[in-house]
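Thread: Modeling a multi-component assembly for a lab meeting

Hi all, long-time lurker, first post. My supervisor asked me to bring a structural picture of a complex we are working on to next week's group meeting, and I have zero experience with this. I have the sequence lines for every component (545 residues in total). Could someone generate the structure of the whole assembly? Inputs are pasted exactly as I received them:
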Amino acid sequence: MNQLTELEVLQSLRDVIDPELGYNIVDLGLIYGVTIKDRQVLVVMTMTTPGCPAANYIEQGARERLLRIDGIKDVQVDVVWSPVWDPSMMSADAKVYFGFA
Amino acid sequence: MHGVRVSRWSLAYFYVAIGSLATAELILMLGIANPLQALSSAWTLVAVHLTTIGWATMLMLGALQQFVPVLTAKELTSHAMSGITWASLTAGLVLLLLGFLTLPGGLIFGDAWLLPTGGTLIVLGIVVALWNLGATLTHAWPWNLPVWFIASGLLFLLLTVSLGLIFAIGLSYPTFLTPGLAMAIFGRGLVAHIMGGIVGWLTLSAMGVSYKLFSMFTLAPEHRGWWGWTAYSATGGGVALIWVSQWVASSSLSSTVGWVMGGVGLSIFLVDMVRLYHSRKRRILELNADMGRWALAALTIAVLLEAWVRITGQWTEWTLPLVFFWLFGWVGGLGLTQLYKIVPFLAWLDSFGTKMGKQRTPRVQDLVRESRDKPAFIAYFVAIFLALLGLAWQSEWFFQGAMGLALVSTLDISRALWRVRHRRVLTGPPTHTAMLITERSKTP
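Re: Modeling a multi-component assembly
Sure thing. I ran the full set together rather than chain by chain. Output:
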C-alpha cells in the first residue's frame, strides 16, 4: 500500500466546499494543518464564520471524504478559531475566482 | 459541534411574509385599499398591517430565528418557542385583519372582540419571541455591533405592538379610554407607533442584519469601528428621543433633535455601507448583494426626502409617500433581495448538508438562476419608485399601476424561491459549474 501523502489528503478535501462562498475549503484557506501518522489523519481547520449552520456539515463532510480514501484507518477533524480566517488566506486561484487577485 | 442548528421555523415565517406582501400589493393594485382616499379606512388598515406585521415583521423575525444564533454562535434557546411565536402572530394577524374589516367601510358587522383578541395574540407572540431571542442574546454578552442594533430593534417592537393593542381596544370599545387619553393615544401615540415600528424596530434591525450579512456576502471587513457605533448611537438615540418626545408636553425641541440625530445616524450608516462595498474582496457580486444596493439606495432617497420635507415644512403632504417608500423600498427591498440568498442556503443545508464528503455537491448559487431572476428585482424597485411618485402626485391610477408591477415582480421572485425548494435537480447530481470549480482546483 502506498504511503498516504498530505497532497493526497488536500486533493480529496477539495471535494468539500463552503456552500455559501461556493468554493472548496482547501483553496479558501480553511485548512490550517494536516498530520498523517500510521494512516490516521488529523486535520486542523477553521470556518469563515463562527456559528454558521453549515459549519457542522463542512466538518463532517471533510471527515467523510477522507474516510473514503483507501486504507485510511481514522480521521480526526479539529475546528479552531485562531488565527481568525481572513480572505487573504485564499489560494491564488480562489482570489482570481472572487475577483481580487 | 461548531455551528448552530438550522432553524426549523424560518421558512414558515417566510411563507406567511411573502403571502402577506403579495396580498397587500394585490388589494392596493385593485384599489380595494386606497391610502390616497382615507388612511384610516378599514381596507387601508388591512393593507398597512399586512405589510408591517404580515410581511416585514414576520420576515424579520423569521430571519432572526436563524440569524441571532449565527451572530452569537449560541444555539437558539428554544425552537418550540419559535413555533409558538409563529402560530400566535399568524393567528393574531388574521384576527386583526378581520377586526379591521369590522370598522366603517369594512365587510363585517359587529364582532368587536376580533381587534383586541388579534392584538393580544400578536403581543403574546412578540413576548415569547423576545424571551426566546433575548435569552439567546444574553448568553452572548458582551454584544457586538449588529447585536446592539437587533436588541434595540426588539425593544421597539415590544413598544410598538403594545401601543397597537391599546389602539385595537380603543377602536373596538371607545369607552375604554377617557376622551383626553384617547386624544393623546390616537394622536401622539400614533406617531410613536409608526416611528417605533418602522424606524425603531424594522430599520434598526435591518441595519444590524445589513452589517453582518453584507460583510459576510461580499467578503468585506466586519468590524466597522467608529462609523458603525456612531450610526447605531445616533439612529437609536434619535428614534428613542422622538418616541419619548411624543409623550412629553412642549417637546418640539427634543423631537427636532431626535429627527436630526436619526438623520445623521442613518447618513453615517449609508456612507459606511458605501465604504463596506468599496472595500469588499468579492468583486463579482451575487444577485442578493448586488440588488441589496438598490435597497440601500432606497433608504438614501428616503432619508434625503425626509430632510427636505422637514426643512420645507411639507410634512403633512409627504408623510404617506415617505412611509410607503421606507417600508416597501428600504425594508421590503432588503427583505426580498436577502431572501434570495437565505432560502437557497436553507434549502442547500436541507438537501445537501449530509451528503457533503460522500458526493460532489453544488454551490448555493447553483440552486438559483440569477440572470433569469434579476429583471424581477429591478422591476420591483422601479415599481416602488413609481408608486412613490403616484402617491406624491396623488394619482390613484398611477399608484395602482405601479403596485400592479410590484405584485408581478413579487410573484416572480416568489416563483424563483419556490423553485429552489422544489426543483428536481435537488436530488440529482451537482451542477456543471460546481464540478468545474473542484476539477479546476485539482489541476496543478
